Amino acid sequence: MKSISINSTAELGALAQQLLTFANGNKFFVFEGEMAAGKTTFIKAFCEVLGVNDIVSSPTFSIVNEYEAENGLVYHFDFYRLKNLQEAYDIGYEEYFYSDTICLVEWPTKVEELLPEEYIKVEITITGENSRTFSFTKIG
Questions:
Q1: Terminal alpha carbon distance of the chain
Q2: By CB atoms within 10 Å of each CB, which of 4, 26, 55, 60 scores lowest?
């Protein structure tokens, strides 16, 4: 596990690079934190590091967004509005989760039983108006 505290969104790019290094090739990431902790904001910075030129936004209503990156596709999920697991089955989650493509999942607790055995968990804790602590953990 690795924990890093930041005091400004200006530090997110460097933090995203550290996450990519920490992942060491793992392509599945879950992002946990309370509402407004900065999950989507950090995912935007992470996508920049991955070479995504598309506009990165929360897929709250569409559940999944697809972005083109330098080395392939990136799938960004937001399961906040998911009413039940059937909705995850309906979007064909398996095709995404097991595609060997980078997957970024917000609100993973809504689909916890569907997550792969190995992934990187990113926990974001609000520590002040502009400060956050990020914890990276390898699961599995």
A1: 13
A2: 55
17-40 pLDDT, tens digit each:
999 999 999 999 999 999 999 999
Q: In what order do the strands lie in the sheet with 102-106?
A: 2-6, 132-139, 119-126, 28-32, 102-106, 72-78, 64-69
Which pLDDT band, with edges at 50, 70 and 90, does 62 fall under? confident
Please give the structure tokens belonging to residue 75.
Answer: 């799938």
- pLDDT digits over 76-111, tens only? 999 999 999 999 999 999 999 999 999 999 999 999
Handedness of CA 121, 31, 26, 19 (dihedral sign): negative
| Nearest by Cα to 65 from 51, 83, 47, 49 | 47
> Per-residue pLDDT averaged across 5-21, rounded?
97
- Amino acid identity, residue 91? I
